[in-house]
Amino acid sequence: MVIKRIGLLTSGGDAPGMNAAIRAVVRYASYKKIEVTGVFRGWWGLINEELKPLDHRSVSGIINLGGTILKTARCAEFKTEVGQKRAFDTIKKHAIDALIVIGGDGSFRAAHEFGVQYKIPCIGIPASIDNDINGIDTTIGCDTAINTALSAIDNIRDTATSMERIFVVEVMGRSSGYLALQVALAGGCEEVLIPERKFDLGDICHDIVNGNLRGKISWIIIAAEGAASAEDIAKKINEMTSLETRPVVLGHVQRGGRPTAASRRLALSLGQAAVDSLLNGEADKAVALNCGNIVTVDLELASQKKKLDIDSFYRLIKILT
User: Fold this and answer.
1) Per-residue pLDDT averaged across 249-278, rounded?
2) Strands of 245-249's sheet, edge to edge?
């Protein structure tokens, strides 16, 4: 199949570096004499024909910007047969030969199902602050989110030490504890709560009280949002230990901001790789970094639950506390 026009969309939660990936796809495709049609608001835009041609100049000045110029949205309608048929009609009407989808596991699952059903070549570019794509090392935006959260936690530690307080800091991670683990380790935090691991608040409070008796004057607990509410945990710790405990919810600040050099470099490399994959006749794949090399992974495999090396991470966090 000859690829003359690519449809490009961002889907799911935004991640810093998505714009760099958009820029790479558009400019590398232009270099290869291929047209790119931008699809706004993800799968919703494909259903409702929110399209715009993208050229070399239209992606100027975006490499340093967080978020996505193509916008993104959740789209329940795309999960229906009617919604997917409307999306396919849009693709045929606008002579789009293939799709490049920038997003996370949910976006890849949708791209896999749609591509197989309608015989549309789809290539995924992994972008997610949760680093939750199976079979790869890291996703676009993950490094930025970690550093954004870490910067906030460094500031919190200053006041935690000065005021001799316990802080429970809630970070993003509804179903994955990767971000929380990384931040807890890099931030020198004393405890981390993640969806993949059960925790005993009584044991945590016991450690806090013993530490306090030994003269430990501050304590920082990282809680992934899918594991626990910072407000609830802080309230219970205060009740169980009588030690002043404050909750902090970092929220969507972790999604925004200027992408780090690592997030930008990955986005640019994967943008080129996605176009090359289509030109090489590949479909139903995600381009990804694995063991330092750019590889392709089946979209179906990539969208499965990623297993984390939780025990070794957690063990090291506790050893270094």
Assistant:
1) 97
2) 191-193, 219-224, 166-171, 245-249
Over residues 302-319, the pLDDT tens digits come to 999 888 888 898 999 989
Report pTM. Answer: 0.94
* Average model confidence (pLDDT) across the chain: 95
Q: What would the DSSP string read from start to end of 124-157? A: EEEB-TT---TTSSB-BTHHHHHHHHHHHHHHHH
Report whether 122 contacts 98 (CB < 8 A): yes
Burial code (b: 16+ CB inside 10 Å, e: under 16) for 100-123 equals bbbbbbebbbbbbbbbeeeebbbb
- Which one of 14, 105, 130, 284 is the catalytic residue? 130
Contact 207, 216 (CB under 8 A): no
Q: Are 261 and 17 a contacting pair, CB within 8 Å?
A: no
28-51 pLDDT per residue, tens = 999 999 999 999 999 999 999 999
How many CA atoms does the CB half-sphere of 246 hold within 13 Å? 12
Is residue 130 among the annotated active site residues?
yes
Stretch among 59-73, 180-194, 300-314 having the lowest mean pLDDT: 300-314
What's the rounded Cα separation, in Å, for the pair 146 and 149? 5
H or E element, residue 100 = strand 98-103
- Contact call for residues 15 and 48 (beta carbons, < 8 A): no
Determine if residue 295 is left, alpha or beta; phi over 0 gives left, psi from -120 to 50 gives alpha, anything else beta.
beta
Q: What is the 3-state secondary structure (H, E, C) of 156-192?
A: HHHHHHHHCCEEEEEECCCCCCHHHHHHHHHCCCCEE
Mean pLDDT across 213-222:
92
Nearest to 75 by CA among 9, 119, 8, 122: 9
Residue in this structure with the two tokens 């460094």, named with its chain if needed: 154
CA distance 267 to 25: 9
- Give the DSSP letter string of 245-275: EEEEE-GGGGT-SPPPHHHHHHHHHHHHHHH
Q: Tell me what pLDDT residue 187 has.
A: 96
